[in-house]
Amino acid sequence: MSWLVENYDRLLVALWEHIQLVGVGLAISLALGLPLGVVAARRPGFAVFILLVSGALYTVPALAIFALLIPYLGLGFWPAIVALVAYALLIIIRNVSTGLRQVSPDILDAAQGMGYGPMRRLFAIELPLAMPVIVAGIRITVVTQVSVATVAAFINAGGLGDIIFQGITQDFGEKVVIGAVATSALAVACDEALRRIEMRLRAAQADAL
Amino acid sequence: MLQWIADNPRIFTVALQNHLWISAAALAAVLAIALPLGLALTRRRALAGAAIGIVNVLRTVPSLALLVIMLPVLGTGFLPSVVALTLYGLPALLLNTYTGLTEVDRDIVDAARGQGFSDRQVMTRIEIPLALPVVFAGVRTAAVQIVSAATLAAFIGGGGLGELITSGMANFNFPQLVAGALAVALLALAVELAFAALEWVMTRSTGLRD
């Protein structure tokens, strides 16, 4: 553990870089994915298209995506963000549209009867009711992004993967393990935190109904 | 991509063979562990909760972390890659085997017992056939995850198509890098489609759809 004691600051920098990759990737994915998810819920054809593309893209290994982006985008933070958004966008769109389509037609009729317009109905009724499913999508997205962001160190995007790759090139096992444990801990912590939020939302909804 | 493969057929086939070998060995190990373990857990519900908790944590661990975390203990090469990929594919199949078996309708099992089926017969003629579609979906997920993550085995000396990417990057050999990346992307998609087709044929032939 001597490396960790002497270099904890470098681990913290790598962790911060990792969180930035996931945070920026998630923010962009949500900004694009939420409106597209609403469109997918209204148009089943678009939803099928999204599911097909998401299935195919999700299968492609992260290292291959990063490698294929190099000739077009080069190396660094932003090319990594493009790959992170590509993985995340489709999960978010899928879950937003599933969540919206699960809202009971009776509730929608009642809202219409009370004079809600389409926009007000969307923001005051549909999105809040779809929130547990949307948060479930965010949870899958974040766990995937923490994993993909580790490999992003391969294209010089920094993050905890950097510690792992440095350890491998320097043949320094302790550093490799510390990098791997830190990444795993980050993934497990994010998963658990979002799982709790999801459970709380579901419980609150069960109480309200 | 095709030009590079045509110029270096030997390097490419060795990488592809390695990739398929590592993936096949890991998938075989996953089947050998997850199927009996999933079945055993349905008989010991007390253990099942703990086992599923562990597997859910394992499922969250990033693929690269899982591949390198045992580096100081297991070293590099074929075997450590297979061990790591086995752990990576295990959760999908174990969870589906357990869920598939527990979701078998209790009424059907009771009816079979009423007709004088032994425990063994209930298992082999009722529970396993009825759980098969869900179990097979788990095999498909595990297979695709393993083939995909096997790309990262290149980082611990396991070879495979990922090596074309890493050495292409190290030597600024971009045709090789792109050839490796496209090949592994196509391989992952081919495995996904092949298993989807197999699943479709199986569920149709056994008449277990719905």
From TrEMBL, chain A:
- UniProt xrefs under InterPro entries: ABC_transp_perm/SBD, MetI-like, MetI-like_sf
Species the sequence originates in? Alsobacter metallidurans
- Cellular compartment(s): Cell membrane
Q: Could you tell me the keywords of this UniProt record?
A: Membrane, Transmembrane, Transmembrane helix, Transport
Q: Name one GO biological process term.
A: transmembrane transport
Report the family membership: Belongs to the binding-protein-dependent transport system permease family.
What taxonomic lineage is listed for the species of origin?
Bacteria, Pseudomonadati, Pseudomonadota, Alphaproteobacteria, Hyphomicrobiales
**Keyword Acetylation (UniProt):** no
Location, primary (coarse class): membrane
Q: Does the keyword Transmembrane apply?
A: yes
Which residue range or ranges hold the ABC transmembrane type-1 domain? 15-194
Q: What is this protein called?
A: ABC transmembrane type-1 domain-containing protein
Its GO CC terms are: plasma membrane
Q: Please name the SUPFAM superfamilies in this protein's record.
A: MetI-like
Q: Which residues cross the membrane?
A: 20-39, 46-70, 76-93
How does this chain sit within the bilayer? Multi-pass membrane protein
TrEMBL record, chain B:
Q: Which GO terms describe its biological process?
A: glycine betaine transport; transmembrane transport
Question: What kind of membrane protein is this, topologically?
Answer: Multi-pass membrane protein
**This protein's UniProt keywords:** Membrane, Transmembrane, Transmembrane helix, Transport
Q: Pfam families given for it?
A: BPD_transp_1
Write out the annotated subcellular location.
Cell membrane
Domain ABC transmembrane type-1 as annotated: residue spans: 16-195
Q: GO cellular component annotations, sorted alphabetically?
A: plasma membrane
The membrane spanning regions, by residue number, are 20-39, 46-71, 77-98, 130-157, 177-201
Per the similarity annotation, which family is this? Belongs to the binding-protein-dependent transport system permease family.
What's the name of the protein?
Carnitine transport permease OpuCB
Organism the protein comes from: Alsobacter metallidurans
